[in-house]
Amino acid sequence: MDAEGQENHLKAYGITYWSLERKVKVKWLLNYRGGSFLLPNSEEIKKECQIRGVSFEVLSTSKAESILAEISSPAKNQEAVVLEKAPKIAVYSPKGNQPWDDAVTMVLTYAEIPYTIVYDEEVLSDELLLYDWLHLHHEDFTGQYGKFYGAYRAAPWYIQQKKEAEALAAKLGFSKVSEEKQAVALKIRDYVVGGGFMFAMCSATDSFDIALAAENVDICEPMFDGDPSDPNYQSRIDYRKTFAFTNFTLERRPDRYEFSSIDMTNKRRISQETDYFTLMDFSAKWDPIPTMLCQNHTALVKGFMGQTTSFDRNEIKANVLVMGENRSNGEARYIHGIKGKGFFTFYGGHDPEDYRHRVGDPKTELDLHPTSPGYRLILNNVLFPAARKKKQKT
Q1: CB–CB of 197/339 below 8 Å?
Q2: For position 337, what pLDDT does the model report?
Q3: What is the pLDDT of residues 209-236, one digit of tens each?
Q4: 3-class SS at 162?
Q5: Would you say 223 and 368 are in contact if contact means Cβ atoms under 8 Å apart?
Q6: pLDDT tens-place string over residues 17-31
Q7: What is the pLDDT of residue 394?
Q8: CB burial readout 44-58, b (16+ within 10 A) else e
Q9: 21 phi, psi to nearest 5 deg
Q10: Reduced to 3 states, what is the DSSP secondary structure of residue 386?
């Protein structure tokens, strides 16, 4: 899985998942040649690699044992983690979404990793208990319709989506979309606390935490929910309830495409040509979880924009691990934490290979980006629940 040896990093994850589905245990060799996978030498697996265009090497038993012995040395910042079971994957998405509206849906499809679409009805019916891993993408859990009001309130798609959201809320017994979305956010919180794995990108990251912090507080203006927001609602925000963020200020203006001060999009002073973030280096033997989540063939990853592009370092809780950052701009791009018995990872930006994705832009063709480091981070999270866990030391 290094830069030189692998033709298609993304589909290699699909091969690993496909093997796990067939009850084949896989060793993930952390920090060894870009985070390589060690699989049994079977004709079936080799044929599947050839079909999918995935590069592989055949090792003798003695060579494989030599590599594992080298990895186990205390002098090496490497580890062999056993992957045991293919995680069941749920993607939280409106039924009408196109696959290219969501980078995770795109890369799962490209890597041929199966997933199930769930939305509010399934979440409120406790169907998340059927899944090991949940993804949230460009979503708004605050009930403000993505803060698209300023630019798109007269657009037919915005009007239609608002009608559909109101109809769904009414069907589920809620008088307002904001109340229904908050109930969904609380169910997702309970899923993670109970032991689930949650991965979120773009506006699902900060809007989720805002919804938790604003429990029983009306932060929506009349154009969103038909009645005024609570007076001085900022003072009633409870940061103790959030997963990752603290001391943030909500954006009150309904016509501004922004939820809060968490997001760095409008604070950035970086050109596209110099927009990169650095992956942190962790101890593979002592901190295998963040090491797994940061496996890549490069430590320098191209930046990309989104409604929520990155996170202000000053508004991240002290117990949350920053795994990717642009230090010169004071922003975190990729963070991870523990909540109850479960785990969450937040990844800023919308599409790792579409720098400034806009409404109506064409889909990204992943055939043109089979070695994308930004997309690899997503797939690290997909395989993470398959690992036999060790207690994290950090």
Answers
A1: no
A2: 98
A3: 999 999 999 999 999 999 999 999 999 9
A4: helix
A5: no
A6: 999 999 999 999 999
A7: 46
A8: ebeebbeebebbbee
A9: -60, -30
A10: helix
pLDDT for 359 equals 65
First to last CA, the chain: 26
Sign of CA dihedral 42, 47, 50, 51: negative
Q: List Cα–Cα distances, 230 to 144, 240, 252, 259, in angstroms.
A: 15, 20, 11, 17
| Structure token digits, residue 149 | 């009001």
- pLDDT of 256: 93
Q: Is 303 helix (H, G, I), strand (E, B) or coil?
A: coil
259 to each of 21, 250, 262, 270, 325, how far by Cα in Å? Answer: 40, 6, 8, 21, 21
List Cα–Cα distances, 362 to 117, 142, 148, 225, in angstroms.
Answer: 22, 27, 19, 32
Q: Distances in Å between the alpha carbon of 282 and those of 1, 188, 290, 291?
A: 18, 29, 7, 6
Residue pair 99/373 in contact by the 8 Å Cβ criterion: no
Domains for the chain: give ranges and CATH numbers. 9-83 (no CATH), 89-386 (3.40.50.880)
Q: What is the mean pLDDT of each run of 10 residues along the chain (394 residues)?
A: 97 98 97 98 97 97 97 97 96 74 91 96 97 92 93 90 94 96 98 97 96 96 94 96 98 93 93 95 96 98 95 97 95 97 96 83 90 98 84 48
Alpha-carbon gap, residue 265 to 273, rounded angstroms: 16
Angle at the Cα of 341 from the Cα atoms of 335 and 343, rounded to 5 degrees: 20
Q: What are phi and psi of 88, to 5 degrees?
A: -85, 125
